[in-house]
Each structure stands twice: as C-alpha cells, then as structure tokens.
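Quick start: what a row looks like.
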Amino acid sequence: MGDRSTVECTHMDLLPPHIHPGMQEFRDPRKTLSGRGVRVGGYIRISTAKDGQLSSIQNQQKLIADWAKANGYALVRFYTDVKTGAYMYPRDEMVQMRQDLRRGVIQGIVAKEVSRTSRDVLDILELKREIVSYGGFFATIKENYDSRTDDDEFFLIIHGGLAQKERRTTAGRVKVTQLIKAREGKTNVAVPAFGYVLSEDGQHLIPNPDTAPVYRMMVDKFLQGWGLQKIAHLLNSMGSRTKKGRPWGANSVRVVLANPVYLGITIYNATTTIRDAAGRPRRVLRPRSEWIVRHGTHQALIGEDTFRKVMELLASRRGKYGHGWSSGLRYLGSAVLRCAVCGGKIYGAKFSRSGGGCYLKYRCLNRTGTCVRPLKTWDMDRVDRTLMDLVRSLFTDGERL
C-alpha cells in the first residue's frame, strides 16, 4: 500500500520547500556559444547628431553585420542611440533592447566596443548582469569580449574601467575648453535659451526674431497678473513650443521667466553631476566661489528692474499658494491625489481665517483647463484621515497586502 502511493506521486509533489512552481527557470547563456542561428541585436551609440558622427552609425552597422555573418549569428535588428556615453538610463533604444531580451526576441547583444554601451563601470556591470538574468549574452568586437566566458567579470571590469578613465580624461579636456570660452564671454550651450539662437560661428547668443517677441509677451502678461498656466494655454494656442519643441506648461513658463540669461548674463560652472546611492546621475550645486559669471555677453531681452519685478512676483505667488513644496508643510496627499472631474493633481493650501489664524485644504488648481467651476476644495484633515485609514487597513490585512 505504501509502495503504491509512492509510485503514484507526481514530480511536482517532490519539490523541495524552497522551490515554488512560479520560480524562473535558469537559461544558461553558454548554450549559445555555437552561434549558429542565435538571434542577436546590434547596439550602436554616437554622442551627437553631427555629420561626422552620423557616418559612424553606418561604420558600426557594417562591422556588427560582418561579425554576425562570420560567426553564424542571426542579426535581428540594430538599436541606435544618439546620447552621451556617461550613463545609460535615458536611452530609448537601450530600453527597447532590454525589453526584447526579456521577451526572447533576441538572445544576445553585440557592440563595437564596451564604451558604446556606457563609459561607467557600474552601468556596464548592471547591463551585463541583467542580460545574463534573461539567459542572454553580451559581446564586443574590439575587445573580443564575451560575457559567456567571463563568469567572474574580471575582464569586463578592466574594459569598463578603461572606458570610464577615457571618459574622465576626455571630459577634463572639454571642461578646460569650456572654462576658457566662458571666461571669454562665449557660450557653451548647444541649444540656446528660448528667445535666442546661436550666432553663425556658434560662439554667442543673438535674439531670435521669431521667439524673442514671444518671450517679451510672456513677461508682459505675467506682470499684468496672468497665471503661469494661463500663459502656457495662450502659447500653445498660438502654436508656440518650448526650445525642446514641446507644448508649454506652467513649469516651463516659470523656468523661462526666472532665467537670468535674458539680462545678457552668462553663468557657467554653477552645477556638477554626481551619482546617488542608486547609481543615477544627480545634479548638485557648486560653491558660488566657483561660478563663472559674465555680464554683457549677449543682447539682453529684459531690463534689471523688470526682471526683479518678475522674480518678486514669482516668490510672492509661491508663498500665496502655499504648496507643500514651497511652504515647508508636508501635506500627505498633495500632488498625489487627483480631482475626480478633470483628473488634475490637487495640492495642499493654507487659507487665512477672517478672525485670525489659518486652516488647511486641498484644492484643484485646474491645471488641465478642463475643470468645472467653481474650483473644488476638500477638508484636509478629513482627507488625510481617510488616507491613513486606507494605509492602516492594507498593512493590517495580510491576505490583501
């Protein structure tokens, strides 16, 4: 009787307790070393869209295609990014490549050299480990690197370190050139501020005859009492776009109004980029003693008195609205909850009582321009209690959690 029950047990019944049915099955990338028919994607990156760099795309494509053919791989497609090599995360084609790896559309990635993926050791290691977790591999032609034969990642660290050192060296040379240009009153920007264009030699800013009048109109409307969102609606209705070709919003209008470049001033070396604990780049402020400030480097579009009025009005409105990010208060649902009518974010605000003191409410600012008037407000204490009850119920209900 006991023997019969043992024989009838299925394979799944014999799973150890640390194994569950949904556990991912390991796909060994080394099984693809034969290369025959293995689907690969070619990753290509150039730093800028200049003509000299664009020819590099064709050269990299030919190199990768010849390599794939010689080794018997099936080249599915190329993934091409025009981005700096400092970090990987903002690249659209890199994101698509990772998705295709995860779905099994491709089984490996081939690049001309390690530095085409990134010039940062941490990024390179993370990419390789992610690819391996999908059962894929990462190979480069110049270094003859193959992740399938580098289990301890020793060679990848060496190649990545050399790429990072090269980036730092190149960045140092570029930085010196930029500092010299800044001290000479020349511009270092590739994309001028809204209202300006680059001069023919690319060294100075000159007013843009099409957008400079639009900037002056923005200033006039703001000083007449128009709100930032109302100005953005007007600009969008006129067909105007930001310097990046995007529709206007309240924040993009605010950035333009607060930019001292319109005083004819060039400020350089005010910030630098570091990596945070998660490995993402984060911009931080340099000491003011290191800033390079040059006056009269280009034609001003606004006078100092007018600019001062704009800045004072911006500051007074921040205090008036009393959002959590500007008033120092931490509203639990501010910019998280949304209006049920227009779908826009609601914000915490402080209102003064007629007899003295103040009270707090959430309110819809109609930033989408589609909300029904009168604009709605909600009692903050009541909403916050509801939120806390919801969070408490989630964390006390093990099954639901």
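That is the whole record. Residues 154-183 form the longest helix (30 residues). The chain is about 40% helix and 15% strand.
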